[in-house]
Amino acid sequence: MDDAPDQFFRELDGLLGPRGLIRDPDLMAPWLTDWRGRFSGRALALALPASTTELVQTMALCARCAVPVVPQGGNSGMSGGATPDASGRALLLTTRRMDAIRTIDPAARQVTCEAGVVLQALHDAVAVHGLRFPLTLGGKGSATVGGLISTNAGGTQVLRHGAMRAQVLGLEAVLADGQVYSALTPLRKDNRGFDLKQLFIGSEGTLGIVTAATLRLVPGIADRLVVWAGLPSLQTARALLLHCQAQLGAALEGFEVLPQPCLDAVLAYLPDARAPLNAPHAWHALIEVVAEPSEAASLRDRVEAALASAATQGFLDDATLSSSETQAEAFWLLRDSISAAERARGPAMQHDIAVPVERMPDFIDEATRTLETAWPGVRAIGYGHLGDGNIHFHVGASAGSDRESWEAGHGKAISRTVHDLVTAWGGTISAEHGIGQLKQAELERVGDPVALHLMRRIKAALDPQNLLNPGKLVVLAPGSGNA
Questions:
Q1: Which of 35, 204, 230, 330 has the greatest number of beta carbons closer than 10 A?
Q2: Dist. CA 433–CA 429, nearest whole Å
Q3: Distance CA 111, CA 117 (A)
Q4: CB-based burial of residue 393 (10 Å sphere; 0-12 exposed, 13-18 middle, 19+ buried)?
């Protein structure tokens, strides 16, 4: 920080004012480490623009002074994509003060809001109009709209509604040189060439900083039921998913799976938790079904009929339906606590991967056998979103392992093996958490060379000085690091 030109800070302070620029190391510290605690860095300062105009002026100044910028939303990412490197050369820039919900159009079922709007606040704002934003996740109390767009976040409703990319109707973003790409007005048909807004969705702030978006909304729900089912195998879970899709159609909103060891870990981790079913099962499914007002009266009857026919065909061993909203939330709390419970059990390599939906059960079986054979004593556990093929695949260390040495040795080799396996199965090493800096080297190792070449060319065209989130997702040339 001491090496930064005084003139740069004088101009930046003039642009942002006392509330918009933080240089105190103690005040900056919480934002210099990622949510998981894996990555920490340094920054020249923390910039907090309050409007698109202030962000434009900040980026123009940074471009003129060749100062790199690391954009950050709620700092709830899983891959270190919003954490600066250790050089201290970059300006950390957060959009958290840009938190206005500009317009809600109930008739069009659209909302236009700024990048710093927190997901929970968005949910609450549109619910007043009898609508909902159809994306949710465990970090909804801190994740921001800009961060969700930049990482193309997923969540538990992808089965019915798709990931964040499917929710974005229009977009505003500031480029590396301070220009504004403005396409907030959605059009059902627009054939003027490239759909440029798609470039910024999932680009992790490497091509531009999202400042606002127009998002689609769906009708609010009048009722929901959550089912907890016990199953003999993951293949049976797949059959149950197809059965539920055929029987319940668009009412089926979520379908999660977890093995018995995951549930055991959660029950040990949460002091007041209890198992939903009376006996253990090899696998469990968490199924969410919702109804709009016109269908609410028949929802329980439809779900009960679907479960009864599934049991007759051998697609489940046991099941229970939520009798209240409190019980529905209790079921989801078991699912949402898996990561914390697994982390409490000891060192583990956690992988956010996906394979074609129909191959997910067989992949988990093969990957588990491969890893537990190659590294005796480890425990491999796969769980997640069966409906979209997204697997959270954790490989826990053998008993008594030291976290740091195990992760650097066996853990790193295990992750390479997992990524090799998922690539061979036609999948992806990142399903919903992004590449960031955590998987950047692995993407270069296993990624399609043509796709990587195209991404680098796009990055070079939009950010020739490499100022936007350097060292994340893709670097301008293999082996160039964060420069």
A1: 204
A2: 10
A3: 12
A4: buried
